[in-house]
UniProtKB/TrEMBL annotation:
It comes from Gulosibacter bifidus. SUPFAM superfamilies: Phosphoglycerate mutase-like (SSF53254). This is Histidine phosphatase family protein. It comes from the Bacteria. Pfam families: His_Phos_1.
Length: 187
């Protein structure tokens, strides 16, 4: 069983370099166009279903992928919602001096909480679809933190529409990483 993790496409806050978190920002015109194009490359016979976060940017991206594979409407999977950045949502990702905004803030959801909730949801998908492959349209931080946890090392930045792939395995997390942000990992 494989799970394809795809980050939603561009929003105005992505383009402006702002922390989005759980703020419900829709795709911009470029994001819609690119999501349509990317979905056209997905092989319909490979995927059984499409799941997504409850936020509009993932629901819109997921709709293009579901249509491309001839699946039912995307199913909402609340646990794969983006990490909450609390009071920092809307703030620039990078400061004027080029350093990244410090996420060590009491209102920011802990990384471990994100990993725990997302892995639990992905394990449930593996249980429900043991002999099928599914796509999950989610968020950059979600994918990056899950990859880091499974790989045991720093994961790459996840680009808009970046594709990563997990495969069920007898491993502590229940998965191994086959593709990280478009880059195949050796087996």
């Amino acid at each position: 069983m494989r799970i394809g993790l795809i980050r939603h496409d561009e929003t105005d806050w992505n383009a402006a370099g702002r922390l989005q978190g759980t703020t419900d920002i829709p795709l911009n015109a470029r994001g819609v166009s690119q999501a349509q194009d990317a979905a056209s490359f997905v092989r319909a016979d490979e995927w059984a279903a499409v799941y997504c976060s409850p936020l509009q940017r993932t629901r819109d991206t997921a709709a293009f992928f579901a249509k491309a594979i001839g699946a039912d409407a995307p199913r909402i999977l609340p646990e794969v919602i983006e990490r909450s950045f609390g009071e920092l949502e809307g703030e620039p990702v990078y400061r004027d001096d080029g350093t990244r905004t410090d996420l060590d803030h009491p209102t920011v959801e802990p990384e471990s909480a994100v990993v725990d909730r997302v892995l639990a949801a992905l394990r449930e998908l593996a249980r429900v679809h043991p002999d099928e492959h599914v796509l999950v349209i989610t968020h950059g931080s979600v994918v990056r933190l899950v990859l880091q946890h499974i790989l045991g090392r720093k994961a790459p930045r996840i680009s808009n529409l970046g594709y990563s792939e997990l495969e069920t395995a007898d491993a502590p997390s229940g998965f191994v990483v086959r593709v990280a942000n478009g880059y195949p990992l050796s087996r």
